[in-house]
Amino acid sequence: MKIKKILLPYDGSEYSNNAASYALNLAKMFGAHVTVVHCYVWSWNMPEVPELIINDIKENMKREAEEVVKRAERIFAQQGVDYELDTRIGDPGYVLTNLAKSKEYDLIIMGSQGHSEIGGLFLGSVTHKVLNKIYCPVLVVP
Fold it and tell me: How far apart are CA 129 and CA 29, in angstroms?
């Protein structure tokens, strides 16, 4: 198997840190590029709230997402691996499935669980959505 591009969904949880370690090691072995992506969701409909406040909330969410991927950067920095950090707005299952369908990646490495503002995602939510709708191998890391 030839691995040139790895997609790493990352949420800062212990499981995604474990997945990042696997991605780092495989990227070193194969000389692969790693795309670290964090998805954040804006799904509130608040017509009574002024648009200026809504925009501030969205900007804060984006900044928080950027802080999450910066934690992943600490894992990859100074390791001799080609990587990029990406944040995307949207449901993680949907965004990751579309990224996978782009056929741009040879492997997806993701944690078996993650966390969200609600508390915890488990195999069967985001990981399950990605596993059921993609074409490339997925390495699920506990």
Answer: 28
